[in-house]
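Progress narrative, work stream C.
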Amino acid sequence: MASYYQNSTKRRYGAQNAVDGNLARKLDRRELERQLDRSGRMDFDELYERRPETAAERNARRRAQVKAAVRPAQKVSSLALLGFVCTAFLMVVLLLCYVRLNTISRSIVSMKSEIKTLEVEQVSLLTQYEQAFDLSAVKEAALAAGMKDPSDSQIYYISLPGEDQARTHSAGGGALERLFAGLGG
């Protein structure tokens, strides 16, 4: 084996089986462009032999073309129409609810401002009330009218013997109940 490799390296290019350069086929420029042009394309007619079209196939192809060209009008599903109507109704109701919510929030804001003004007014009225019923002013008005404080001789204290008690009577009690109440009481 080793002798074979040694002999092949010592060969000269001028020998009978020697190759000058590479073994690739040399093409002229036009042939190369033609092959590159055809390389990406496959012509159906060149590759396969076409059989003649029958009348049934021709009619089927024409029917398919006509069917594709003229499509029948599609019917709208009643369920889809009902869904659309329900969605539109719900959108209108939602919009009306937002309007109502907006008016309620505006009225709440106006009521809060009214409450603030009423609180301020309440404070001012309370101060006027306290000024009107000042005890010193009342005492002066009573003295001016001729009223006096009661003397000790005008005050009477009443004390009753016994403890404070309360009795309840039931309406329509029976005789037996009255007997027990009389014995117990």
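Work stream C, second folded protein:
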Amino acid sequence: MTLKIYTRTGDEGDTGLFGGGRVLKDDPRVEAYGAVDELNAALGMARSVEMMPRVDEVLAPVQRDLFAIGALLATPDHEKMREQLAKARIDDARIAELERAIDGGEAELEPLKAFILPGGTPKAAALHVARTVCRRAERRVITLQRTVPLPQLAIIYLNRLSDLLFVLARVANKRAGAGEVTW
């Protein structure tokens, strides 16, 4: 049996949650996991532009992490939340991996002395777009956290990821020989 992509169950403006229940499509929970989904798509786009092995290798597991974070946000069941965090390996060690990737990227770069304008090569520009989408996802998760208990690691992860994306955008420009435009 083939499943159809359309179910018609959301035609009235609501959607089903992972683990049961239905909410309006503009519910803070849907806004949060939707922003994480958008971030994952932006990372997919950034990875497809000007392949850059060491940069793309860092981002591949991040996409898997984001899928699990989205599932975590999409469930009101706290046990399923814990399962999703464990499945994604989102823990202090994973945060430390992101920090090591940031440090490794920064080691290739000159220290910042001014704000830089997003842009440069298509790869860097795509990473800057992903960074801004990441910041929005972080804001949406924080909004959701005001009313729903969520693991703090989800917010910490998104915060580190936005820093990583900023550094990777700068690395992409440097490796391509593109200068940065300061503000």
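The chain has a mean pLDDT of 87. No further action is required on this item.
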